[in-house]
Amino acid sequence: MIYLDSAATSLLKPPEVRRAVSEAMRSMASPGRGSYPPAMRAAETVYDCRAAAAELFHVPEPEQVVFTMNATHALNIAIQSLAGPGTKTVISGFEHNSVTRPLTALGARVRVAGTRLFDREAVLRDFEEQLPGAELAVCTHVSNVFGFILPVYEIAALCRKYGVPLIVDASQSAGILEVDLQRLGAAFVAMPGHKGLFGPQGTGILLCGQAGKPLLHGGSGSDSIPQHMPDYLPDRLEAGTQNVCGIAGLLAGLRYVQRKGTSAILRQERELLRLTRQELEGSGLELFAGPEDCQCGVLSLRCPRTDCETAAARLAERGVCVRSGMHCAPTAHRSAGTLETGTVRLSFSPFLSAGQVKRACGVLRSLD
Description:
CATH topology of the largest domain: Aspartate Aminotransferase, domain 2
CATH architecture of the largest domain: 3-Layer(aba) Sandwich
Strand content: 5-15%
Distance between the termini: 22 Å
């Protein structure tokens, strides 16, 4: 099997992640629910994971790191904390449904800025035009469909200039690019645990530049008598029993990223991207590729004579795992002109070899 779908889930993980999950299942209970050893081990692991995330993402205090089920959960907390009916909101032209659907459900007034693929200057100009008078901005760091790296730090500076709170979706950048909460000055930064951080599915992180509003209400393991959620982080936004086993695995993934370094991971993914482009040159496939500094380890393509779903199915029959279709991001496809067809998406991992990529490209070249 050649796994080229790490933008969806990092199936290829450091072995210590699996070991950490297994050990947590064997030895940990729930944090904040007791002072006996299994509960204390759980509490220590959860805190260590907060601290590791705070260090990696330049968060002033570990308590500003909130654990969620996934990035969608984190984005819903962030968006519902800042948006409501009629909120004037600017988003990029490459957002995922985990941004656009909550905004639609809340009745926010959404304007799209920056729809030109791999054109960072055009994105910035559009945000500069749209931000005056806005009440909220939401921007993905990297397009999950095309790997386009948006100028999120420059957009953050514009948001500060116009006094507009910013939510950053770091689903495709966390663990691969620098994500710095303090430098961004963002209200919230959301990310999954199961992609570039190599954690298990069912884990996510919300970095909080402000307190936020609870999305769920219930037990927090603290302040049990008041009938409202605590007014301090992280308890305010973490209701119910935590995914301790998942958080233990996420801690192992974060430590792997810290040891290896995001710059090394990015360099490896770009080498595989460059190799793929070389191998597919002249193949007749339509590649959505931009300048190297504008793209990380995601490549979308279309086959001239085969629809995307059929192409992906044929690749799967020959052991090549890719994703096809809309990738839960019709806004991005609308911007790139691929809404009618979708794309086949290849996404890379530091656990993928050059030989595997060459074999996958050979299969792609053989598609009619």
